Amino acid sequence: MSATEWFQARLRMGESSKVPVASSGATKGPARHTPKPSARTTAERLQATLRKADEALSPRTLRRVLAELQAVIDPRVSEVEGGRRAHAIAQAYAGASPEERRDYWALMSEHFAADAGKLKSARDQHQSAVGTPDEGQAELRLRRALVSPRMRLLQRFAVEPGGMRFLVDLRADLLPCLKSDKRLLALEAELEHLFSTWFDVAFLELRRIDWNSPASLIEKLIRYEAVHDIKSWSDVKNRLDDSDRRCYGFFHPRLPNEPLIFVEVALVDRISEGIMPLLDEAAVPVQPAKATTAIFYSISNTQTGLRGVSFGDSLIKRVVETLQDELPRLKTFATLSPIPGLRAWLAKNAGELLPRLDEKREAELGRLVGSVPPTAERLLAAVDAAAELDAKSPLRQWLLQATAEYLGRTLVDGTPADPVARFHLGNGARVERLNWAGDPSAKGLKQSYGLMVNYLYDLKRLDRHRTWLAEGKIAVSGDIEGLFLKKG
User: Fold this and answer.
1) Under 8 Å CB-to-CB from 379, ≥6 apart: which residues?
2) Of the candidates 111, 176, 285, 315, which lies 20 to 30 Å from 191 by C-alpha distance?
3) pLDDT in tens, 297-308
């Protein structure tokens, strides 16, 4: 049934009309509790009789779990039987405490690594064979030696229908613990490697999500929306049901009705300057046939366990192709994006921007903040209430210039500093325009003084822009370039 029918049924049953709250088993991220690793290795614990205070599973239980894990990859059993055994372990893991789950990870990490002796031998043989007719065969032996028992173990977990869900959730549990326990890095790396193959875009289905989609799917959309919170059922209906709105998601066959990533799109007649008109439920819809511009105003990844597995680039390309087929008049594809890292970056770097002001602007700002020359502390205090600054304010101009520097020139380890910029610029977009008071919400003011940015997807220049970024240059429009401060 449609979401409307489902919602009306709930009202007849006397349930609240509020947006559903996520269940405890389906939160936006992993649990905050990250158990500390035991000081002893599992090898030491397996030889012991008693557990120590910081250890969850007793040595006896630890030995039993290790035997069960080893039985999953017993060469004498079929993959189906191995999958059945893995499923039993997954059920036990689901009922385990966070501390006990960490013991499962430790066993997988420390007892299922590649054979070091075979790996060294294969590597030495490959190095000796480079440039000879035997190089291909030596490479094959090296590849086989690199396949660890851990990899086969993880693959067996994926045999059962619920196995993919188990592995994605396991990695979500694991990720917050990596800094405190480097022993888990190999397990995490192999999970990411498998996911990069299993969740390749060739195996994903692009689906439109609308008001007639299953109610359970729409509930997940509400739960996972990470950019602009959905406040009510009328809000979600506006985003899905209006003629000038679209929502698309990528789905995997082993995670049915679970969007991996989704994008919300507004069909308009120009590049949008602010988010409020796009979310306004009373706004007059644009006729799709007359729309010239598609605005991607919210993109949300839903699975913490798939962090590092990239399919956002392909999602945007597929959505663009789908929209062009449906609406040939669409010529412009752009985003209306938040700038989540701006305020924190400016708090650390405002002082470094001040020497790059010209004398006139330095004097203007100094008079406004009561300090000549102006100090970073006083400037930051003055722009804290950015929404109150008028269009001609030198403080407003300085904040726009600082934002242009952040988005258009600031690289960290060769990539854009802002996480949203990193995503879109990495896909080949360019920084097109800054929008003052684009997001006047509390969240928008806290993150970026209310500023938003348009990234333009010029389909003919995406590869060129990616090449520039690889060379350390960010693609920007003339408007953004005109805001840059002089070189330091």
Assistant:
1) 350, 354, 365, 369, 395, 398
2) 315
3) 999 999 999 999
Cβ-based neighbour number of residue 192 at 10 Å: 16
Q: Do the bridges between strand 245-251 and strand 415-416 make them parallel or antiparallel, or are there none, so unpaired? A: unpaired
**pLDDT one-digit tens code per residue, 425-438:** 999 999 999 999 99
Between CA 221 and CA 157 the distance in angstroms is 27
Distance CA 105, CA 442 (A): 40
On whether the CB atoms of residues 110 and 153 are closer than 8 A, the answer is: no
Would residue 337 show up in a list of annotated catalytic residues for this protein?
yes
- Judged by DSSP in three states, 330 sits in coil
Residues 6+ apart with CB under 8 A from 405: 353, 484, 485
Binned at pLDDT 50, 70 and 90, residue 10 comes out as very low
Cis peptide preceding 373, ω within 30 of 0: yes
Taking residue 362's Cβ as centre, other Cβ atoms within 10 Å add up to 18
What is the Cα 88 distance to its own chain's centre? 31
Phi-psi region of 414 (alpha: psi -120 to 50; beta: other; left: phi over 0): left
Q: Can you read off the two tokens belonging to residue 266?
A: 């507004």
Dihedral, CA atoms, 158, 162, 167, 168, nearest 10 degrees? Answer: 130
Q: What are phi and psi of 254, to 5 degrees?
A: -90, -5
Total Cβ atoms within 10 A of residue 437: 17
pLDDT in tens, 95-144: 999 999 999 999 999 999 999 999 999 999 999 999 999 999 999 999 99
The label of the residue with tokens 């520039």 reads: 468
Q: Which of 87, 252, 424, 465 is catalytic?
A: 424
Asked about 424 being catalytic, the answer comes back as: yes
Beta bridge partners of 294: 267, 333
From 337, 441, 465, 477, the catalytic residue? 337
Hey, what are 465's tokens?
A: 């822009």
- Exposure of 476 in the CB half-sphere (CA atoms within 13 A): 23
